[in-house]
Amino acid sequence: MDSWAGAPAAARGHPARPPRCLQYMLPHLHSGRQVDQAILSEEDRVVVIRFGHDWDPTSEKKWQVTGCFKVKNVAVIYLADTTEVPDFNKMYELYDPCTVMLFFRNRHIMIDLGTGNNNRINWAVEDKQELVGIIETVYRGARKGRGLVVSPKDSSTKYRY
Q: How far is CA 86 from the centre of its chain?
């Protein structure tokens, strides 16, 4: 019997690593009803929904840097494929390869990122801490009843369209 079996990773000589938060580990929403239920059912946390495709490199890149283990107390993250769930494409104007929208208590929360589009994030956020900061800022603002929150970092010059 191996005496190291129950020991923490650091004790076995391996560095302790946080769990990886990749797309296949996040819950997928397969219908419009599931998307509605995800938004309606969560009372205490921000609902983050990534509308896009799993095979899209932009979508994959965004969730490789998410660090969802850091926001699990303030947010729940879902993925919805825009071809599988086309119900929201026109309503939310989902024409980009990857779009992230945030909701709190059945309300869409807008984010002022300095880009002029306050409804969504439609680019790959390169820095894990930046995305975690945005989600935490939305949580704090939404709990205070704000429908529009200001991002902790101005993205107006960083991302060019």
A: 19
Q: The domain that contains 94 carries what CATH number?
A: 3.40.30.10
115-155 tens-digit pLDDT: 777 888 887 777 778 888 889 999 999 999 999 998 877 76
**φ and ψ at residue 109, rounded to 5 degrees:** -100, 125
Q: Residue 81, SS3? A: strand
Whether 30 and 92 have beta carbons less than 8 Å apart is answered as no
Residue pLDDT, tens place only, 67-81: 556 778 899 989 898
Amino acid at 86: P
Q: Is residue 6 part of a domain?
A: no
How many angstroms from the chain centroid is the CA of residue 98?
A: 11
In terms of pTM, does the model score above 0.85?
no
Structural domain including 118 reads 23-150
* Residue at 111 is within a domain: yes
Domain count, the chain: 1
